[in-house]
Amino acid sequence: MSTPWHVLGAGSLGTLWAARLARAGVPVRLILRDTARLQAYQAAGGLTLVEHGDARLYPVPGETPDSSEPIHRLLVACKAYDAEQAVAQLLPRLVPGAELILLQNGLGSQDAVAAQAPQARCIFASSTEGAFRDGAWRVVFAGHGYTWLGDAAHPVAPIWLDDLQAAGIPHEWSTDILTRLWRKLALNCAINPLTVLHDCRNGGLQQHHCEVATLCLELGELLQHCGQPAAAEDLQPEVERVIQATASNYSSMYQDVASQRRTEISYLLGHACKVAARHQLNLPHLNQLQQRLIARLHSLGLPSD
Ligand code: NAD
Ligand code: KPL
């Protein structure tokens, strides 16, 4: 039997991956927070994946973090702000050379996880797939996309990419995963906070062209300074293209705020501002954007970290 996948974080992306792996006959275990969650999950009989309006149940086995089974391969599908703590409780179960696949958006959480698990190989991922939960243990596959995976320290692709192939998870091994993550971070910084501040869909930013352009200039400067010139290339035209292509959508940050959920600000705009400060780079508009966003989150009673 092939090496089992453990999936930490039974949310939208975690269950989307777990259901597709299980469907392909790949062994998968879902790690739930505690016994109460495990019992609720077991009562539901498994995960339901809704695809093209068709709902199917996959009885993926569940367990709690304190189970004794060693972990060889762990998909970390928590939000960026939960990843470090969630992985910490599993450290005693990781075998030497275990592989961690980190699905978090933004930057900062991956390094924090890698620092506490030096015995593991950490693979960073960046995904354009879209999923949301429409009920307990039910996930809707909302947007087909792609997942790039890479390991900045070891460029050799792992053998288990075959499992993703078998599961129909569109993916590509990337030798420049940090560039991809920085590029996505820059796009998110140029779009997401402004949609919250202007209370608009992505397309609404067409009315704020100058503000977007100024942010792109500063983000480009930051990317150049932190050794990511490729991520800075033609940033502004791409941001404008994404704004147009996703004009009727609400950004992920907008949706988090509208649903009174904590945002991943610290791993997006917060990370950009922190790295700029470390490089003693003065980026006034980016800093001001961060202050405005923090003030807005506070006014809504939401955390700003
Ligand atoms: P989510 O909130 O739906 O799921 C996260 C899950 O992790 C939750 O079920 C939560 O209970 C669980 N969790 C947190 N701490 C835990 C712990 N200590 N032990 C066990 N479980 C724990 O989040 P998501 O939407 O799946 O997003 C995950 C990451 O993927 C984020 O960084 C997000 O930005 C990124 N992403 C999401 C999508 C999407 O469409 N949902 C698309 C691209 C990228
Ligand atoms: O990824 C996005 C998000 O909403 O998080 C886009 C659509 C690119 C906007 O930044």
From TrEMBL:
SUPFAM superfamilies reported for this sequence: 6-phosphogluconate dehydrogenase C-terminal domain-like, NAD(P)-binding Rossmann-fold domains
Biological source species: Pseudomonas fungipugnans
Catalytically driven reaction(s): (R)-pantoate + NADP(+) = 2-dehydropantoate + NADPH + H(+)
Entry EC no(s): 1.1.1.169
Name the UniProt record assigns to this protein: 2-dehydropantoate 2-reductase
Class of the enzyme per the UniProt entry, highest EC level: oxidoreductase
InterPro entries noted in UniProt: 6-PGluconate_DH-like_C_sf (IPR008927), 6PGD_dom2 (IPR013328), ApbA (IPR003710), Ketopantoate_reductase (IPR050838), KPA_reductase (IPR013752), KPR_N (IPR013332), NAD(P)-bd_dom_sf (IPR036291)
Pathway assigned in UniProt: Cofactor biosynthesis; (R)-pantothenate biosynthesis; (R)-pantoate from 3-methyl-2-oxobutanoate: step 2/2
Keywords attached to this entry: NADP, Oxidoreductase, Pantothenate biosynthesis
Superkingdom, natural source: Bacteria
Family note: Belongs to the ketopantoate reductase family.
Function: Catalyzes the NADPH-dependent reduction of ketopantoate into pantoic acid.
Domain Ketopantoate reductase N-terminal intervals: 5-152
Domain Ketopantoate reductase C-terminal: 176-293
PANTHER family: 2-DEHYDROPANTOATE 2-REDUCTASE, 2-DEHYDROPANTOATE 2-REDUCTASE-RELATED
